[in-house]
Amino acid sequence: MRLEAQVIEGWPPLAWLATCSRGDGAVVLRHGPWVEVGEGFVCEAVWPEKFDDGGFDRQAVVAGTGVRLRDGEAVFVSSTSTVDRLHSVERPEGPVVSNSLACLVSAIGAQARLDHGGYLREMSSITKGIDDYDRTIPTTSEQVRLTYFRNLVWDGSRLTERDKPPEPEHLRDFAEYRDFVRSVLARLTENMSSGARRHPLRWLGTLSSGYDSATATTLGTEVGCDQAICFDRSRLNQPDSGEPIARALGIEPLVIERATWRRRAARFDRTPEVPFLAAMPTGELAPFAAAREHLSGRVLLTGFQGGAMWRLWAEDPSPRIARKDSSGLGFAEFRLVAGFINCAPAFWTALSVDRLAAIGRSEEMRPWVIGKRYQKPVARRIVEDAGVPRDLFGRENQPGVGGSLTKEPEFLGPESLADYQPWIRREAAAMGARWLVTVAVLDLVGRAAAPAVGLLATVVRRVDGIARRPSTHILRRRVERVESAVRPLAGGAAIRMFVFQWGLARQAERYRAPAEAATRARDSSRASSS
Predict the structure, then answer these.
(1) Which of 5, 150, 346, 519 is deepest in the core (most CB within 10 A)?
(2) 3-state DSSP call for residue 423?
(3) Residue-level pLDDT at 514
(4) Are residues 292 and 387 in the same domain?
(5) Same domain membership, residue 304 and residue 423
(6) In the chain, helix, strand, coil percent, each to 5?
(7) In terms of Cα–Cα distance, which of 234, 225, 231 is closest to 188?
(8) Do 257 and 191 share a structural domain?
(9) Is residue 497 one of the residues assigned to a domain?
């Protein structure tokens, strides 16, 4: 088995696509210009061992993705998280694997199907855990396989999943957990700054007023993280800036106004929503397009999965890595374009959530258990031990900066909408009369239901304000959840139904490069075999 690497200058910097040959053992890997090529491996990843050895296939902790040839196998390595994934199809001549869904569908000549309404359900199903999610999604050509957390192994005849090496077995108290994370971060820092890299990486934090990003970034300050992205407000327009935390940590806050994110993002991309919608049908995290100038060449410390790992009582103590939402997946395509690696430390012990919860409930952690429901003593102790005053963070659970674009009144900016509308009109012509009638009916139902649900929510809020009983409060929360889901339909459901298909199609176009654009000069000289 041999590895042949080809850099495609016009591709997003960190994207790669591997085509495996069943006949001659070749693994031809085309990639963007910032992907690293070493002896027997290709990657856009960091891991807690020497970079030169390329041993990320044998590591429990990996941020990013790559492929490693070893002992007659090609190991496609996924991130130690469920906010990144591998995409693959199996063909008679051999599998095709990529870290980008858009890149893969472009390579196989496919598109997302307009007549398939289950993409959001299927791609959000990873919240059920790594054993129970929907492993494939349909396209106009073939089913695409999605792989999270585990690695894929090609032995020349079959493509199979393989578990990563186990996490540390003993996490008995806070000190052991803190020492484990500190050690991993120190070794990651050595890896990402290695002189053997063509493109060394640097840390960058994220900060809001909550627990999770503050914990991840605080951990990073010990290993050289000296800046953090801070959005001034949450997606519900509530103050949520982590700027005071940054000041307390002694790092520079890179403050971004959420209300103006589209105008700022337009400097880099005329249609900034595209890569986010190509990753998830909701387009979550799109406001981060405004931070693109800060993200290039960075390892971004994020708090994803902190809600499950650091809370006082684990909702699911099993090792299946269940999640409350799919937040974080919106970065899957954008990060390849912007050139950064998503690093979420909470996932490093995700298979040991029961042990972390036990540490949080231990007697030694009682001084850091504050509040009624929003309690994360492990996270609080980490941040407070770094000198951040107690009242600066974790006071209430904020909704975050990047919710679903499709639930916002302005779900696409002017340039994107001007591109999307003629695209959907053109594509709809091939959908058939029955499907068009179904879409029209759904649109009418949505327009009628939204005002009725809004009126019901107003009445329930007033009743709850007068009665102030647990039963009316529970009813109010349930009705408001329905209202949040239905409200966007007041402007019509049909116009929002196909943004994933449009986003994926437009992102896939960014991977169309002529054959002569592939250059083998440097990478081919380092192509290797095993």
Answers:
(1) 5
(2) helix
(3) 44
(4) yes
(5) no
(6) 40, 15, 40
(7) 225
(8) yes
(9) yes
Q: What is the CATH number of the domain that holds 183?
A: 3.40.50.620
**Domain finish residue from 137, 165, 193:** 165
H/E stretch holding 68: strand 63-70
Q: How far is residue 499's CA from residue 113's CA, in Å, rounded to a whole number?
A: 12
Instruction: Tell me the three state secondary structure of residue 422.
Output: helix
Question: Which tokens in the block code for residue 437?
Answer: 């009638």
Domain housing 280: 174-403
CA distance 106 to 100: 10
Contact 149, 132 (CB under 8 A): no
pLDDT tens-place string over residues 477-495: 888 777 776 666 655 556 6
| DSSP symbols for 300-367 | EE--TTHHHHSSSS-S--STT---SS-TTTTHHHHHHHHTEEEE-GGGGGGGGHHHHHHHHTSGGGGG
The C-alpha atoms of residue 287 and residue 233 are separated, in whole angstroms, by 11
Q: Is residue 408 part of a domain?
A: no
Q: How far apart are CA 370 and CA 392, in angstroms?
A: 13
Sheet holding 340-343, edge to edge: 252-256, 227-231, 202-206, 298-301, 340-343
Provide the pLDDT for residue 433: 64
Buried/exposed 266-276: b ≥16 CB within 10 Å, e otherwise:
beebebbbbbb
Q: Are residues 422 and 475 in the same domain?
A: yes
Q: Transcribe 508-519 into DSSP letters.
A: HHTT---GGGEE
Tell how strand 2-8 and strand 26-31 pair up: parallel
Tell me the per-residue pLDDT of 319-339, one tens digit each, with 9 for 90 and over: 899 998 888 999 999 999 999
Residue type, 359: I
Q: Are residues 266 and 377 in the same domain?
A: yes
CATH number, residue 134? 3.60.20
Q: Which of 402, 425, 424 is nearest to 499 (CA)?
A: 424
Q: Amino acid identity of 143?
A: Q
Tens of pLDDT, residue by residue over 266-316, are: 999 999 999 999 999 999 999 999 999 999 999 999 999 998 899 888 777
Kindly report the pTM of this predicted structure.
Answer: 0.88
The tally of domains found in the chain comes to: 3
Tally the residues of the chain. Answer: 530
pLDDT, tens only, 413-448: 999 999 998 998 888 767 766 665 666 666 666 667
Statement to judge: residues 26 and 129 lie in one domain: yes
pLDDT of residue 3: 95
